[in-house]
Design goal:
Blueprint lengths: L2 H14 L4 H18 L8 H9 L6 E2 L2 E2 L1 E5 L6 E3 L4 E5 H6 L2 H16 L2 H12 L18 H12 L5 H17 L5 H13 L14 H14 L2
Parallel strand pairs: 3-5
Antiparallel strand pairs: 1-2, 4-5
Helix pairs in contact: 1-6, 2-7, 5-8, 5-9, 6-7, 9-10
Length: 229
């Protein structure tokens, strides 16, 4: 790439990191749709979809003002994620591993990343990281015009994003507080992190590569339970 091309790429990266809330929502719409086409969605009458519907009954039905859209991907991978447009996806591998209380804890954590602005940051970073291949010209007017492959690439970068230690801890607290406010069992957060700790290192999933380590996160949640707050 020549010097002019590099300057253009740098400008696009800057624009990507300056995406507005509405632009991030639009990119999330396209990214989630691309993932839904690539993945195997559990049909509404499947045991997984029916169980998820039961689990989320007491969970938030909106995420930052956007209607929450919960669906299951049929895959052995242990993961879950949420985007700024209210798209929340849970993998059947995670559901096989977790009981209902643990599942609510993990979902609350993913919603926390959205509510606290972490998911917006991750989408901006994912867009900037894709600028050389033309994905992140978004702020220049390409939002809503991404190709299927571009939207899929953007989604993959978002899903594999690594949150900081402070962001992970803040999302844990968000989930804990949400469960507390809704009078739901919080011990699931502790046992969920204990289970993830046992799996740590066996997958490249961002969920299993969390910082701080899952054992420390489990201990911190237990400490909050013991403190009664």
């Amino acid at each position: 790439m020549d010097a002019g091309g590099l300057m253009d790429a740098g400008g696009s990266a800057y624009k990507a990191l300056s995406l507005t809330d509405s632009e991030v929502v639009n990119m999330s719409n396209e990214s989630c749709a691309a993932m839904d086409k690539q993945g195997q969605l559990a049909p509404a009458n499947s045991p997984y979809a029916q169980r998820l519907n039961r689990v989320i009954r007491a969970m938030p039905d909106t995420v930052n003002g956007k209607k929450a859209d919960y669906k299951v991907y049929m895959t052995k991978e242990v993961n879950a994620w949420a985007m700024a447009n209210g798209c929340i996806r849970v993998y059947s591998g995670l559901m096989d591993l977790m009981n209902d209380d643990e599942l609510r804890g993990v979902i609350g954590h993913e919603i926390g990343h959205v509510a606290l602005g972490h998911s917006k940051d991750a989408m901006q970073t994912a867009a900037a990281a894709s600028v050389v291949r033309g994905v992140a010209g978004a702020a220049g007017g390409v939002v809503g015009q991404l190709s299927q492959s571009q939207a899929g690439e953007l989604a993959e970068k978002f899903i594999n994003a690594q949150f900081s230690q402070s962001q992970e801890s803040a999302a844990d607290d968000y989930s804990f507080d949400t469960l507390t406010q809704r009078k739901l069992e919080r011990k699931g957060l502790v046992s969920a992190f204990q289970k993830l700790a046992k799996l740590s290192g066996s997958s490249g999933s961002s969920m299993l590569s969390s910082h701080p380590p899952s054992t420390e996160r489990a201990a911190r949640m237990q400490k909050r339970i013991d403190a009664g707050k």
